[in-house]
Design a protein that fits this description.
Largest sheet: 9 strands, mixed
Distance between the termini: 35 Å
Radius of gyration: 21 Å
Helix content: 25-40%
Number of helices: 10
Mean pLDDT: 94
Low-confidence stretches: none
Bound molecules: flavin-adenine dinucleotide
Shape: globular
Number of strands: 21
Strand content: 25-35%
Length: about 400
Amino acid sequence: MAVAVPRLEERAPSQCDLVVVGGGIVGLAVARELSARHPGASLCLLEREPALARHQTGHSSGVVHAGIYYRPGSLKARLCVEGARELYAYCEGRGIPFERSGKLIVATDEAELPRLDELERRGRANDVPGLRRVGADEIGEIEPHARGIAALHSPATGVADFGDVAEAFARDLESAGAAIVTGCGVTATRAGRGQIELRHAQGATSASYAVFCAGPWSDRLAVAAGAPAEPRIVPFRGGYLRLRPERSHLVRANIYAVSDPDLPFLGAHLTRGLDGEVLLGPSALMVGARDAYRLSRVVPRDLAATLGWAGTWRLVARHWRYGLAELGRAASKRAFVRGLRRYVPELSARDVVAGPAGVRAQALGRDGTLVDDFVISETERALHVRNAPSPAATSSLTLAREIADRVPG
Ligand SMILES: Cc1cc2nc3c(=O)[nH]c(=O)nc-3n(C[C@H](O)[C@H](O)[C@H](O)COP(=O)(O)OP(=O)(O)OC[C@H]3O[C@@H](n4cnc5c(N)ncnc54)[C@H](O)[C@@H]3O)c2cc1C
C-alpha cells in the first residue's frame, strides 16, 4: 500500500533547519516529533519513492504488538509496551480503525513449553497488560478451531493499518508547516562548517541536522557518512498466503507459534486483519534485493552486499537447517500450510491462495548475529536509524521520542 498525502511539496528546499530522510512510518513519526519540539524550525522530509510508505510500512502484518517477546531492558521492550498504548490512543483520537483483537501463542507439544515459559517470563518482566497462561480447554474457547497443550493469551495485541497511521502522521506534519518531498532520493552527504549537506535527485539541501530513517537502505548512507560498517542490512522476504473467505471463520484473531527467542523472526502466524481477511505467514527467506517483492528480483548491488558480508556466511553456517525449512515453505504452499496445521488442524492447502509479500530490513552483525534490538548510530550532525524491524511500526511514536531526545536542541 502506498500512502497519498494531500499536498506534497514538489521541490526540496536548498536550506532548512532539520531534514529527515525516509517516508516510512519511522521517518514520518520522527519528523512529526521534531516539528512538535521545534515549532520555530523549518523541517523537510525527503522520500525517494513517488509516494510514502512504499516499503516495509506498507507491507507489514499490521499487528500491534503488546511487548511479549523482547529481552527485558532492551529498547524494544521499553518502547513497545508504551508504544502500543500510545498508538491505540492516537488511532482513537484520529478516527483511524484498529481492533484490540488479542492473540494466542500456542504450544502444541511438551518440547515447546520451556520456550513458552521464557516468553511468559519476558512478557511479565515487560509489564505486558493482561498477559495470561491458558490451558488446552481455554485455547478452544478463545480460538474455537485452534489446538494446543498450553498458550499465552495477550488481550492487548491488536491490528491496525500502518499505512493509515503513516498517512495521519504526514497530515500532522503538513499542518505543522513541514515540507514533504517525494521522488527525492538522497545519494550522498557531507558534514562540516556547522551544516550537513544532502545531495539528492533535485540538487542539494543544507541543514543544521539530519536524521536518516531509510529502512532497508539504512546502512548505505550511514557507512558513507562515517558510521561503523556493522550492522549490515540483509533483506529477508516475508511471503503470505490468504485464507479463502469461506474458510476465514477458522481464525478469530491472531494465532502464533512459539517463536525461538534466539531469532528475531516471530515465525509464521495466522492473522485476521481489519477487513476480516486472514493472512498466513510471513515466511523468512534471504533474498537478492532489498525490494524483492517478487522472489525472482535480484539487484546486483544488494546481492553483492549480502554475499560480501562475512556475517552472512556465519549466519548460514549456524542456521542452515532453519534456512532450508524456510526455503521449503516458500517453495511449497502445502509445506507452508502443513506447518500451520499444527495450530489449526482443519486447515488444508485447498483453503489458501497466494497472498502479498514484504521485505524485512534485517540488520546482521559481522559475527553472524541477527541484531534484535533497535540500533541508532551517530555521525557528524546526523543520526542514522540502522535497525528498526518489527515492532518498530507499533513503537513508532515512542521510538520517535527516543530518537528526537538524541537530536541536539
Ligand atoms: C513482512 C513484514 C511484516 C511486519 N509485521 C509487522 C507487524 O505486524 N507489526 C509491527 O509493528 N511491525 C511489523 N513489521 C515491521 C515494520 O513494518 C517496520 O519495522 C517499519 O515499517 C519500519 O519503518 P521504516 O520507516 O523504518 O522503514 P520503511 O517503511 O521501509 O521506510 C523507509 C523509507 O526510506 C526511503 N528511503 C530509503 N533510502 C532513501 C534515500 N536514500 N533517500 C530518500 N528516501 C530513502 C524508502 O523509500 C522508504 O520509504 C513488519 C515488516 C515486514 C517486512
